[in-house]
Design a protein that fits this description.
Largest sheet: 9 strands, mixed
Helix content: 25-40%
Strand content: 5-15%
Distance between the termini: 100 Å
Oligomer: single chain
Radius of gyration: 32 Å
Shape: elongated
Number of strands: 18
Amino acid sequence: MAEIFDSSESESEFDGFELRDINAAEERYLQQHIDALNNIDFDIEFSDVDSDENEGFNSDDDNVALAEIAKWGDELRPVQINDFTGPRPGPTTQMDKEKTEIDFFHLIFPERLYSEIATQTNAYANGRQNENWTPTTSDEIKAYIGGQIVMGIVPVPNMDMYWYKDKLFHSSSLEEKFSRNRYEELQRYLHVANTTQNSPRLQPGHDKLAHVRPILEIVRDKSFQEYKPHMEVSIDEAMIGFNGRLGFKQYVPLKPTKRGIKVWVRADPSNGYINDFQVYTGKTANNPEQNLGKRVVLDLMTPVFGLGHHLYCDSFFTSPDLFTSLWDHGTYACGTVRANRKGLPAGLDRIKLKEQGQFVVKQKNYMRVTVWRDKKNINLLSTNCFGEPDKVNRKQKDGTIKEVPCPLSVKHYNMFMNGVDHADQLRSTYNISRKCLKWWKYLFNFLVDISIVNAYLLMRESVNHQIVTKKNRPRQMTQLEFRMKLAHQMLGQFHGKRKRSVDPRPVLQPSNHWIENMPKKKTCKLCSQNKIRKEPKTGCAQCNVNLCIECFRPYHRKLFPQLFV
């Protein structure tokens, strides 16, 4: 590492200048900022959510900030990093071997929520004065969510196709559990919270998330309690897709899901487990929140302060001010950083690095800022990366592979920043969300999906639920396997469809002709005479023929007109 920083080649940080020229330029640059502070007018091209610290030097204490900048130097000193002292990473509840997928799901999404959802759904349906509404139950709500899981696994263009009689176009058995009308009724009247006590909009005490608040808090608390994170954690934003009208809908052009509800997430990079999250509900009183990135990180990290965690975050959150606060609470950090962040060395955005792999490092106390050349300059700030640089392979224009230097902060950032992306990937695969009009139902589906994903990861790491192949080799359960078994267990023995009543008039003495289930399905006798192919399970055992329910009376009327009128 000494060779990299002490060589004459690396002293030329700016193209065509000596080190003394650079130092002189920095002094002039600082003086220019001091002279022009009161005249600077910055244009910020971020939405209200980005009103964090992007302004650069524009606060009341800029003179102090500029004085702090001068403390950054080229001398790299070792910094003592304390060992991780948190509890052993992994599930906190040891589940017995006989526990199944639904038991793990209930660790995050407790069974009592089915009853609460049923109560609120019935109250809402009654309030809509639907005289035909049949009260739902906790068992039906559980089966309804199981049906949503099935729909996530077996998607179709139109929900009606799940009830098609043509088996060619659907393969689920939802029609055996629900009638189509009943399932649509449950979707229409589904409610999960009592919002009658919520204050009006724009009034003190108004809760923008009142429609899902009880379940949101339970899922959040259970997710935190049931899994202890590893030393490395990452914080990033997740998006819940929604294109309708909503006061706190966000637009994030760089995300795969560009429009919708933004959720700040703290996830475990080792597996994508979501330990904590916070739904962003936008600015208050038309005023963008200041220092939003810092506030979010401190909110999500406060429960694990003092344990020696290493946080990885992107440039929206990263700032010297935030990393100082984390350091003061026994937490280390690394992240990409914007060159105009207050407190960074002046001129970061003017550093010219010619070749891929070149980098410049400056240090102040326990903090290092690194500018590394990949395809373009990448800026990183860290309080936990003080080791020797590594090497990475990069493909050149001529197709050859070249090994180039890579700072430790870049290597660690690439390794541990993907926790939320991993969680998003798991959540978006087989997700239960379907198109609807109510924004809060998208958020409710998000809560169910992260409950499923977290439950899956808990079961995958459970010591009593490890899978071994026939060749005695360990194998991890897939999320698809988990969701399929969970759907079966949630649907269970539930049968919501009413059985059709059979008119007792065909059964008259002394006849023994009853409509009943036959040993197996066969062609309907009457339908076949009319050149219609149907294979019912019902029929007449006395006549030893299979008959559709609607064909039973016409068939016997022909044979026994005196008995079947």
